[in-house]
Every structure is written in C-alpha cells, then in structure tokens.
Amino acid sequence: MEDQSIVSALVLGLIEGLTEFIPVSSTAHVLLAGHFLGFKSPGNTFAVLIQLGAILAILSVYFTKLLQIALSLPTSAASRRFVGAVLVGFLPAAVIGALAHDFIKTVLFETPMLICIVLILGGFVLLWIDRKPLTPRYHDVTEYPLSLALKIGFFQCLAMIPGTSRSGATIVGALLLGADKRSAAEFSFFLAMPTMVGAFALDLYKNRDALSFNDGAIIAIGFIAAFISAIFVVRLLLDFVSRRGYAPFAYWRIAVGAIGLVALLLVG
C-alpha cells in the first residue's frame, strides 16, 4: 500500500463525510478530487463503498430515535407510517439504480466535464429554490404521507447523475412538494440509510472479483475518515439550514464546478 494512496484515501474519505449530507454532491467531489489526485479504484467502487461510513454516522447520531421507532413498531401507527414512508421513498432508486448500475459507473462516473456542468446547474437550482416563496405544509418528518415520500424518492433518482447530489435532489423535491427546510433535510438523512446501504451492497457484489486486500485497506481508511467527518456535519446541518437556507451550498457548487471546468480545460 503506497503512502500516496493512503493519503489520497484519507483526503477523499474526509471529503465524502463532509459533503454527503449537504446538497453539493459528495460523489462529484470525491470523483473530481480522485481525478486530480490520480487516485484509481476498481470499478470506481471507492466512492460508493466509503459512503457506508457516512451512513454509520447517521445511525450513531440518531440511534436513540431509531431505537424508539423500532421498539414502537408493533403498537404505533405513526412509527409504521414513518418506516413505510422511508421504504417507499427508497423504492424508485432501488429499481432504477439496479437497472442502470453499469451505465452509471462506466459512463457517467467517468465524465468529469459532465460532473462539473451538473454541479454548476444544480447550484443555480438551489439558489432558485432558496429564494422561491414557498408555503410549507409538512413540518414533522415522521408525519410525511406515503405519496409525498414516493414523489421525493423519484426526485432522489436524479442523483444517479454524478454532480446532482442525492441530498440536494431529495431536499429540492421535498421543498417543492411542501416540506419545510429542516424536515426536508432530515428526511434526506433517513432516506439515505436504505439507499446508500443498497448501493454499497450492489457495488460490492458487482466488483467482488476485482477487489484485493490492498483495496480493502484503502477503503477502510476512507470509510473511517468519512464516518468521523460525517458525524460533525450531521450534528450541525439542521440548525444551519434552518437559519441560513441553502444559498451557501449553491455558491459552493457553482465555485467548485467552475474551478473544475477550468482545471480540466487547462490540465485535462
């Protein structure tokens, strides 16, 4: 295991954890950073597999709430509705992601120019939604109806285009459909759990013959870095978006996309 690979895995893991749950596209950041660092992984698995570290960060922060929901499932209709909403929201990505997996990984993940353009376009979408005078109807994430969750799930499928942002797509969809900013971000957290675990399992299965022991060690480094940095973000994000909205993330997306485009044009 080369020292450069270890440092790259650490840097990319930190980037993953810091960007996974904010609407800037962690996949775009990891792929672009990996491109310029010269970091390669079999089948582009690294960017997907280290996301499990970010998922464990959510589980650790929300462990008490999730345990209460799990224990109350037999007696609470509200808990069953909430779990059902998360699973229904996950369904579109499960179906479309499985069908389009190879195209996403071999074509879209290998197109840095597309990623930069989508980052910039997504930034303008976030600016538009942040300034749009919306009237929220849903304020409690545990009370989202199944129909709302399903529609948000279809928005999440847009994130299969690298640069879109899974959290960004779900948040924008939720806001347009009547959720407030805080609950939109929180539902994105919960929807991430089955979505990213499913992506992790599918990617691991598809690339099981291409991974080696050294790949596992590199992935473990990125995984731990993503876990630690994601805990920091999850604890702070909800209060931040309640106060500041999503405009800061929009400007960040536009800046990163523009810098990436310039760098690609200058150095390839």
TrEMBL record:
Which topology term describes how it sits in the membrane?
A: Multi-pass membrane protein
Catalysed reaction(s) here are: di-trans,octa-cis-undecaprenyl diphosphate + H2O = di-trans,octa-cis-undecaprenyl phosphate + phosphate + H(+)
Q: Enzyme group, top EC level?
A: hydrolase
Question: Which key words are in the record?
Answer: Antibiotic resistance, Cell membrane, Cell shape, Cell wall biogenesis/degradation, Hydrolase, Membrane, Peptidoglycan synthesis, Transmembrane, Transmembrane helix
| Major localisation | membrane
Recall the GO molecular function terms of this protein's record: undecaprenyl-diphosphatase activity
A Gene Ontology biological process in which this protein takes part is: cell wall organization
Q: What EC number(s) would the UniProt record show?
A: 3.6.1.27
Please report which protein family the annotation says this sequence is part of.
Belongs to the UppP family.
> NCBIfam families per the record?
PRK00281.1-2, undec_PP_bacA
**What biological function has been recorded for the protein in this entry?**
Catalyzes the dephosphorylation of undecaprenyl diphosphate (UPP). Confers resistance to bacitracin.
Q: What is this protein called?
A: Undecaprenyl-diphosphatase
